[in-house]
Design a protein that fits this description.
2 copies of one chain form a homodimer. Chain A is about 70% helix and about 0% strand. The first copy, chain A, contains 9 helices and no strands. The first copy, chain A, binds a DNA duplex through helix 3.
Chain lengths: ~180, ~180
DNA sequence: ATCGAATGAGACGCATGCGTCTCATTCGGT
DNA sequence: ACCGAATGAGACGCATGCGTCTCATTCGAT
């Protein structure tokens, strides 16, 4: 008995990441519980999405903590961050695309915290001379989210290999597509 | 009289890019026509989205043509492509996020054509030594779409400046965030 | 074994948005 | 000025999914 709330959320995240229009009934079935029970734990679909958002923020915040962004070269810190965030890439992808729907009415303050921390990493890298300064930290932050989401979708659709997740994101984000000049 | 189909599509694209859940009525109002008229021109919401998809594909294909991808260095060709695609970035962003919903049932063949042409550009760049070979053309193609979409969303949300659109995308995609080593 | 809490299945009403239809009005060509 | 086609406004039924409720069942602690 006693439904594992976290487990339900994880199942819901996995399902909604693939099919964002999934029904409450489908979510319940996927989690192996009844629709009524799902409603007993989450007031409604909106509450469910909010809970997923909260979980996603917490997970990503944990990834930020685990990555020790303040230590060592900024580029290496970024690699650690991508590695830590990988397990939650699907959830992130879902939330990012879901966020487009939030008509600015009430966005979770958590995103601002995350943005600030990621931006701070890029800024630190710029000040240390590791990152170029002609691309704003805000854009680099968005690009990081975007690439994580894009990669997650691509993996789900089988267009790229899951095992290359970290490599593709970090290498593209850090070095770009252009072949570096021999030095 | 006589509704301008293309104009309706453009208005719909602009609206749906910001609010993908917009009602058929909202789309009609935005286009300055009645809902009945909208239905007379597009069999239903699905048909409308399909028409938008078709338009997006055509526009992007036109961008590919205009960019002359086969001429000159691959990186410069990529810059031209981004520049040509910029006017339709919003539409692209909408279609990309909407494509996630297509449960593989029936994806427009047009995307495959576009993918092939973009991939070919990256492959050409790799063979010419312009682009690095450790990132697959498929991933670079996805990344290009992703960055265009991300940038479009960021501009819409006011997080980055619209005027830097081309620069942010091309510079990040080509050169990455890392400051290049002095040579 | 017993009892209470939690669950599952399903019914029910409600809200929303779609697609169709009707009818009066307006546009535009002749 | 006339007439047909196109449009706008709105009504209508329908389908879907949500949220609530009931009731029998099951789990788990005592």
């Amino acid at each position: 008995m006693s439904v594992d709330r976290a487990q339900v959320l994880r199942t819901a995240a996995a399902l909604l990441s693939r099919k964002s229009t999934a029904t409450m009934d489908e979510v319940a079935r996927a989690a192996g519980i009844g629709r009524a029970t799902l409603h007993r734990h989450f007031a409604g679909r909106d509450a469910l999405v909010r809970a997923l958002e909260e979980m996603g923020i917490q997970e990503f915040e944990a990834a930020l903590d685990a990555a020790n962004l303040d230590e060592g070269p900024a580029d290496e810190a970024l690699r650690r961050l991508v590695a830590e965030a990988e397990p939650n890439a699907q959830l992130l992808a879902f939330l990012v695309s879901e966020n487009q729907l939030f008509e600015g009415d009430q966005v979770n303050e958590g995103w601002a915290r995350l943005d600030a921390r990621v931006s701070a990493l890029f800024r630190r890298g710029q000040e240390a001379g590791t990152f170029r300064i002609d691309l704003s930290p805000a854009w680099l932050t968005e690009a990081l989210y975007g690439l994580i989401g894009t990669c997650a979708w691509s993996v789900m659709d089988g267009r790229v290999a899951a095992k290359d997740f970290r490599y593709m994101i970090t290498e593209l984000l850090l070095g770009g597509a252009r072949r570096s000049v021999e030095k």
